[in-house]
């Protein structure tokens, strides 16, 4: 494993002594490296803007707790961080109020403090970009329910309402402590909204209706659907990875071994 800039990675990717490229990072860099990798086998784990759908029959306390953790853990610097939350209209107002209340309880600042959830972003320029995207969305009609504060590399957890599909905070990977909320009336429409993305890593659905679960699993073009938990959940024994711009191949112990090897046939004629 090598952490590097694209300038360092490019000559290594093009070197024929390496037989496989496994890359984790942004979609822009990942697909570029694949384009110059030649005959190598390529495995990509890239970005996402994970959506979570919360239906009115869900355990709301649990859904709020998990969406809060999933949206802000590691300051949102997780490719399967909760970014878009679609909420059934009958519970929308109450859900948003409680989500904001839980968000404002989160510890912000010193990562050495046990109570801190929102620590600094990896670089100050990324924190500045996150605020730029929030302000750009706000100028286009979005409403800041809480957050939109920055000190150096630290961005306070932010909840945005009244966002539009073409806003960067919706259609791109923000990779920061920001979630958007929007109401829906029809579950099928909510599924289409989540699926209307260039990314397809993971999604979450909070409901106890098996028909809705089946509909979401059938219609969502994602690498994984998490039911009654956040899309940030993963364990190493299931196939983890994305479709569309989110990647190529699968992680997970068994599936990594399959991706990293080539099957080979041995035929023996024992009669001669």
Account of the protein in words:
With 272 residues, this protein is an alpha/beta fold. The chain has two domains: 6-46 and 237-259, no CATH class; 51-227, Aldehyde Dehydrogenase, Chain A, domain 2. 35% of the residues lie in helices and 21% in strands. It has helices at 6-14, 27-35, 60-72, 89-104, 124-139, 168-171, 187-195, 210-219, 253-260, and strands at 20-24, 41-45, 51-54, 84-88, 107-108, 116-118, 143-146, 150-151, 154-155, 158-161, 178-184, 199-200, 202-206, 224-227, 243-244, 247-248. The strands form five sheets. It has a seven-stranded mixed β-sheet, sandwiched between helices. Strands 1-2-16 form a three-stranded mixed β-sheet, covered by helices on one side. Strand 8 and strand 9 form a beta hairpin. Helix 3 crosses helix 4 (89-104) and helix 7 (187-195) runs parallel beside helix 8 (210-219). The protein starts with 5 loop residues before the first helix and ends in a 12-residue tail after the last helix.
Features:
alpha/beta, Aldehyde Dehydrogenase, Chain A, domain 2, seven-stranded mixed β-sheet, 2 domains, 272 residues
Give a brief description.
This protein has helices at 6-14, 27-35, 60-72, 89-104, 124-139, 168-171, 187-195, 210-219, 253-260; strands at residues 20-24, 41-45, 51-54, 84-88, 107-108, 116-118, 143-146, 150-151, 154-155, 158-161, 178-184, 199-200, 202-206, 224-227, 243-244, 247-248. With 272 residues, it is α/β, with parallel strands linked by helices.
Estimate the global geometry from the Cα principal axes. Answer: globular
Total E-strand runs: 16
Rg: 20 Å
CATH homologous superfamily placement of the largest domain: Aldehyde Dehydrogenase, Chain A, domain 2
> In percent, how much strand structure appears in the residues?
15-25%
In DSSP terms (H or I, runs of 4 or more residues), the helix count works out at 9
Q: Which sequence of SSEs, written as H and E, runs from N to C?
A: HEHEEHEHEEHEEEEHEHEEHEEEH
Q: Are there runs of 5+ residues with pLDDT below 50, and where?
A: none
Q: Which structural class do the helices and strands define?
A: alpha/beta
Distance between the termini: 47 Å
Strand order in the largest sheet: 7-10-11-4-3-13-14
Q: Biggest sheet, in brief?
A: 7 strands, mixed
CATH fold-level topology of the largest domain: Aldehyde Dehydrogenase, Chain A, domain 2
Total domains, how many?
A: 2
Q: Could you say what the CATH architecture of the largest domain is?
A: 3-Layer(aba) Sandwich
* Amount of helix: 25-40%
In the CATH scheme, the class of the largest domain would be Alpha Beta
Mean pLDDT: 96
């Amino acid at each position: 494993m090598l952490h590097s800039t694209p300038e360092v990675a490019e000559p290594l990717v093009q070197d024929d002594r390496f037989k496989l490229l496994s890359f984790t990072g942004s979609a822009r860099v990942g697909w570029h490296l694949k384009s110059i990798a030649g005959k190598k086998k390529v495995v990509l784990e890239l970005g996402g803007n994970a959506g979570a759908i919360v239906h009115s029959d869900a355990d709301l306390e649990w859904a709020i707790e998990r969406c809060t953790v999933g949206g802000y853990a590691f300051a949102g610097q997780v490719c399967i961080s909760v970014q878009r939350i679609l909420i059934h209209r009958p519970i929308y107002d109450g859900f948003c109020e409680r989500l904001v209340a839980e968000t404002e309880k989160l510890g912000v600042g010193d990562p050495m403090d046990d109570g801190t959830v929102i620590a600094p972003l990896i670089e100050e320029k990324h924190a500045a970009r996150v605020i730029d995207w929030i302000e750009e969305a706000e100028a286009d009609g979005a409403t800041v329910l809480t957050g939109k504060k920055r000190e150096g590399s630290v961005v306070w957890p932010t909840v945005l309402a009244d966002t539009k599909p073409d806003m960067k905070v919706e259609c791109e990977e923000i990779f920061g402590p920001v979630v958007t909320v929007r109401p829906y009336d029809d579950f099928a429409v909510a599924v289409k909204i989540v699926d209307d993305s260039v990314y397809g890593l993971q999604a979450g659905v909070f409901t106890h209706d098996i028909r809705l679960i089946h509909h979401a699993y059938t219609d969502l073009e994602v690498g994984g659907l998490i039911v009654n938990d956040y899309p940030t959940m993963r364990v190493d024994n299931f196939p983890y990875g994305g479709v569309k711009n989110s990647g190529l191949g699968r992680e997970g112990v068994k599936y990594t071994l399959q991706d990293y090897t080539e099957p080979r046939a041995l035929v023996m004629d024992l009669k001669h």
